[in-house]
TrEMBL record:
This is dTDP-glucose 4,6-dehydratase. It catalyses: dTDP-alpha-D-glucose = dTDP-4-dehydro-6-deoxy-alpha-D-glucose + H2O. It comes from the Bacteria. The lineage of its organism: Bacteria, Bacillati, Bacillota, Clostridia, Eubacteriales. GO terms for biological process: nucleotide-sugar metabolic process. It is an enzyme of class 4 (lyase). Keywords: Lyase, NAD. Gene3D superfamilies: NAD(P)-binding Rossmann-like Domain, UDP-galactose 4-epimerase, domain 1. Its cofactor is NAD(+). InterPro entries: dTDP_Gluc_deHydtase, NAD(P)-bd_dom, NAD(P)-bd_dom_sf. It comes from Eubacterium plexicaudatum ASF492.
């Protein structure tokens, strides 16, 4: 006889989230607990590389329906054991090396984590979910979180990335993400593996590691450090507030057609230099009159530096398919999102201090050589 407790337990869906201690993964976990509360269980598997910060999940770590496992997605035995020991219903695969500049300096780890690690995740999920007749158990779903950078670069004056746009990655980062997307597609085509791929534009928001444009500029400006602009500063990115991405991922898993790819972006194209000016203006608007840092924040900090090698000129997503099929729309206007982001960094000075010490600092010195 099934007890009431067991029935309730059965209804609790278990998510295996990889890379949940990173920027988007931690925001996604917070979003999911806000939305579903105790109706879900999340197991977060993260190797805690330089980009993984358990502090990002401080507020959820005491929850009974949250488990953290420190493991490398390339460690087949560790990942297989997680699937054997838990009835996993959903995989949401974020874990990756994610920074283009690092990929230019050290491509191998990108191939290892992003390509091989994805192969391990796919294979372990397939092993756990495949039934004797080759079909997959009802309700099992794998979502691979990818990037618009797989599509390459657009001309300044036109065009958008659609799901049908041919892949043309340029950096080792985007090439490794493209390879991982193809692996997922191959599992869908070969085994009818129950997966989706999402290709999203640039995210911004709380918990973003300050090697990426927006938190780097906020952090430097507040310390009166130079603001390094690559090339002419006119490269365009399509910025999306991270909660809107988290919502889209959840909706794709709930309502998306299995096997499909969905582009996620918000028609919010901006040149890098425009972003930097907005950050300076917003900081000056938000800093209290008596705050000493007001004296440090200035447009004079803007410093044009050598361009990134192979720097993609423009990214822009056409989110038509996800809007039409799933009803997702970005909700956060950039002017509001940037304020929320800056307010978060104001309230989390200690977080910033912690992540900008140690290894990150060494990397930073090497990268900018005293700029
Ligand atoms: P991030 O670098 O902030 O976090 C990556 C996380 O993965 C970290 O917690 C890290 O410890 C973990 N990780 C790295 N290697 C691992 C390994 N071998 N095993 C287990 N864990 C490992 O990255 P992010 O910005 O949060 O991006 C998450 C995902 O979203 C990535 O797949 C990225 O390609 C994709 N994406 C990012 C953006 C963006 O703007 N940041 C946009 C579109 C897609
Ligand atoms: P980044 O945040 O690294 O994201 P991605 O390369 O994945 O788009 O960079 C966003 C844009 O900002 C990109 O065009 C490079 C540029 N950039 C700078 O000009 N200066 C910087 O210090 C950084 C980190 C990026």
């Amino acid at each position: 006889m099934i007890t009431e407790k067991e029935t309730t337990k059965e209804m609790v869906r278990t998510y295996l989230v990889t890379g949940g201690a990173g920027f988007i993964g931690s925001n996604y976990i917070h979003y999911m607990f806000r939305k579903y509360g105790d109706q879900i269980r999340i197991i977060n598997v993260d190797a805690l590389t330089y980009a993984g910060n358990p502090e990002n999940l401080k507020e959820v770590e005491e929850r009974e329906n949250y488990t953290f496992i420190k493991a490398d997605i390339c460690d087949k035995d560790a990942i297989r054991a997680i699937f054997q020991q838990n009835e996993i219903d959903r995989v949401v695969h974020f874990a990756a090396e994610s920074h283009v500049d690092r990929s230019i300096r050290n491509p191998e780890v990108f191939v290892q984590t992003n390509v091989y690690g994805t192969a391990v995740m796919l294979n372990c999920a397939k092993e756990a979910w495949e039934q004797p007749d080759g079909s997959f158990a009802e309700g099992k779903k794998f979502l691979h979180v990818s990037t618009d950078e797989v599509y390459g670069s657009l001309e300044e004056d036109g065009g958008y990335f659609y799901e049908t746009t041919p892949y043309a990655p340029h950096s080792p980062y985007s090439a490794s993400k493209a390879s991982s997307d193809f692996l997922v597609k191959s599992y869908i085509d070969t085994y009818h593996f129950p997966a989706n791929i999402t290709n999203c534009s640039n995210n911004y928001g709380p918990y973003q590691f300050p090697e990426k444009l927006i938190p780097l500029m906020i952090n430097n400006a507040l310390q009166g450090k130079s603001l390094p602009v690559y090339g002419d500063g006119k490269n365009v990115r399509d910025w999306l507030y991270v909660d809107d991405h988290a919502k889209a991922i959840d909706l794709v898993q709930e309502k998306g057609r299995l096997g499909e790819t969905y582009n996620i972006g918000g028609h919010n194209e901006k040149q890098n230099i425009e972003i930097i000016h907005t950050i300076i203006e917003t900081l000056l608007e938000m800093l209290p009159k008596e705050d000493e840092r007001r004296k440090l924040v200035s447009k004079d900090l803007i410093t044009y530096v050598e361009d990134r090698k192979g720097h993609d000129r423009r990214y822009a997503i056409a989110p038509d398919k996800i809007r039409a099929e799933i009803g997702w729309e970005p909700e956060t206007m950039f002017k509001d999102g940037i304020k929320k982001t800056i307010a978060w960094y104001f309230a989390h000075e200690q977080w910033m201090e912690n992540v900008t010490s140690g290894d990150y600092q060494k990397y930073y010195e090497e990268m900018y050589k005293g700029n």
